[in-house]
Amino acid sequence: MATFLARFLEPLRPRGLGAWLALAFSTLTVVLTLLLVEVVESASTEQVKNSIGHGLGEMAMQTADKLDRGMYERYREVGLMARRRDLVDPGTTQAERRKVLADMQETYWYYEWIGMAGLDGKVLVEARGLLEGANVAQRPWFRDALKGIHVGDVHEAVLLAKLLPAQDGEPRRFVDVAFPYADAQGRPAGVLGVHLSWQWARDVERSIIAPVQMRGKVQALIVSAEGVVLLGPEDLQGKTIDQPSLREARQRRTGYLVEEWPDGRSYLVGYGATRGRGIYPGLGWNVLVRQDIGDAYQPVRRLRARALWSGAALAVLFSVAGVLVARRITRPLGELADSADRLRRGDTTALVPSRDGYDEVRKLSGALNALVNNLVQRRAELQDLNATLERRVEERTRDLERALAAVRASEQRIGAIVDAAQDAFLAVDQRGMIVDWNKAAERMFGWRRQEAVGWPLAELVVPERYRASVGKALHAFRQTGRLGALGRRLERTVINRQGFEFTIEMTAGLAGEGEDAFFSVFLHDISERKKIERLKNEFISTVSHELRTPLTSIRASLSMLDEGMAGELAPDVAGLIRIASQSAERLVRMVNDLLDIQKMESGMMEYRRAAQPLLPLAEHALASMQGQAREAGVLLRLDRPQGAEQIRSEVDHDRMVQVLVNLLSNAIKFTPQGKAVTLGLSQLQGRARLTVTDEGPGIPPEFRGRVFERFAQADSADTRPKGGTGLGLSISRAIVEEHGGTIAFETEMGRGTRFVVELPLAVAAAHQLA
Length: 770
Fold this sequence. Notes:
With about 775 residues, this protein is of the alpha+beta class.
C-alpha cells in the first residue's frame, strides 16, 4: 500500500526550485495565517468564555443574595409577630388569635403553617386549626427556639404531610422560623412557629434564571451546608454532592469552574454562597448555577468557525502571491543552472548570469568560476595527501595502543584496591549473577572467587526465605530502572558456605550505563555488634528491674517524710528530704523509661486497645499534671470544641495517658511562670488530633532534627535547670506509631512549641461523624 501511494504521488512532487519555493511560500503563508487567526481567535474565545462564566457566577451570587434578603425578611417578620401584644396577651381568645394568624397567613402566602405552642409543646392555636392540640415538643423548631436558634434548614413535612397535599407531585418541604413569646411579666410563655414553604425558594430561582433561559438551558442548585441538594434537577434533588465548585463556594468565594458531574457530562458552573443578612445568621446555603458546556460555549464555536473560514481565505490569497514571487526569484537561477550544465559537459566558458539577475546570483556565478579554477589545484593537493595518509595511520595506531595500555593499568589498580579492601566486595549484573568477588568476600562467605563468579547471588549468600524478594527487586529494576536499596546503608541477613546465618551492613551502588551497568556492593559483618547490642539490652533490663524495687521503697519513704508523716522537720532537713524525694522520682521515671525502651526493642510491650472516647483520657492526663503545674506556676487549660465528647479512637488508655503526660510534663518544664499550657482535642480530615501547646522559648534549630531521638535533650549539661531522661519523646513516638498514628511538632523561637498527635478514628465514630 505504501509503495503504491508513493508511486501515485511521485508525479505530483515539485521538480524545480521555483516549484519548491512556491510550495514553501504557500505552506509558510498558510501556517502563519492560521497561527495568526488562531491567536486572535483564542484571545476572543477566552474573553467570551470568561464573560459566560462570570455571568453564571454573577447569577449564583444574585440568587444567594436574594435568598439572604428573603430569609432576612421572613426572620424579621416572625420575630415581630412573636412580640405582638394581641397574640400574647392572656386576655385574647383563641378565636381572636386564630383570626390574627389567619390574616398573617393570607398576607404572607408563603407561610404554610403559623401556630403558637405552649411551653409543654402543645399547639394552642393555628391559622387554620391544623395540629391544634398536637404535641410538638420533640420537633426541632420548638426545641431550638427555646435554645435561641430561630431558623432551621430545609426538611420535608412530618406532622403536616398527611394534612397538606403534595405540590407539583413532590412532598412539601419547609424552612422553620420560630421565636419564643413572653407573657405580660416578660417570662417565656411558649413558641410562635412558622413553616415557610420551600416553593418560595423555587420562585427566587425562577426570577433569576428565567431571563437567561432563552440563551441556553441553565440550571440552579441550592445546596445545604452539608452538601445536600435542596433545590435543583430531579436527578440530584436530595442527594449529597461534593463538587470543586461547591468547595469554592464554601470558602465564601464567587466565580466559575468547568467540571465533570456524576452524570458524566461537563458543565460550566458559577458558584456563590449565602452569608446571612442583618440579624438573620444564615444557614450556610450555597448556590450553583450550571450550564452544559456544549450549550454554554455555542457562541464560542460559532466565533471559531468564522475565524477559521476567514483564515483559510487569507491563506489562499497569500499562497497565490507566493507562487508569483517564487517564479520571479527562480528565473535568474534557472539561467545560471543552464550555464553550470554546459560547464559539466566540458565548456570552459565562464558562467555569466542574465542582466536582470540580482546580486546573489552574480556572486554565485563568481564563486563557481573560482571553484573551477581551484579543482586542478585541489587534485594535486589530494595526491600529496594520499602519499602521507599511511604515515598518519601508523601514528594514530601507536596512540591507540598507548591509550589501551593506560586503561588496562587503571583496571589493574582498581582491582588491587578492591582486593585489598577490608570489607567484602561483590559485583552483580542486572540478572542477579555475580561478576566479581574480592578476597574479603572469600573470607566472609567461604567461597573462592572462581567458585562464586557466574552463580546467582540469591542462591549463594541469601537465605532461602528471602530469595523471592531479591528476584522481585531485580525484576522491578529492569522494568523501571529504580531500586530502593541503592545509595542506602541497610542491614541484611546472609548465609555462608557452611549454612550459618549472620548479619551484615550493606551499601549498594550502580556502576556503568545501559545494559552493561552492574551493582557494586560492599558488605560489612556486624554480627558482633548485634551481639553486643543484645547483651546491652539484657543488661539494661536486668539492672532496671533490680533497681525498681528498692527505688520504689525509697521513693515512698521519702514521699511520706516530705508530706509530714514523721512530724514537722527542720527547714534544712525538709529541704534535703524534698530534694531526695524529687531525685527518687526522677530515678523511678528513668528506670521505667529504660524498661519501656527495652520492651519496645524486644517487641514485648503489651497494648490493651479498645474503642473509647478521647476526652476522658485527656482530662485524666490533665488532672495528673495539676500538681507539677501548680509547683511551676503554670496554668493548665483544656481546649475542647463542641462535639469533642464524640471523638473516639481505638487506643490503650494507660499508654495514651503516658504519651500525654510526657508531652505535658515537657511543656510545663519549658514554660515560664505565669504562662499557660493548653491540651487540645479536635477532629481533622477523618483523624482525631491531640495537641499540647506551650508558651516557652521554642526548640533551638540545631536540636529540632534530634527531638525524638533517645537520650536527646536541648540542654545536655549536668547543670541544666530542666530534669528528664531524654527518653520520653522517643517512647511517646513509639507508642503513637504502634497505634497507627503520627506525632510531630511546630515551633517558633520566642513564641512556643506545639506537639501534635494524630490517631485514626474508631470505625463507629468515623461513620457517625462522616
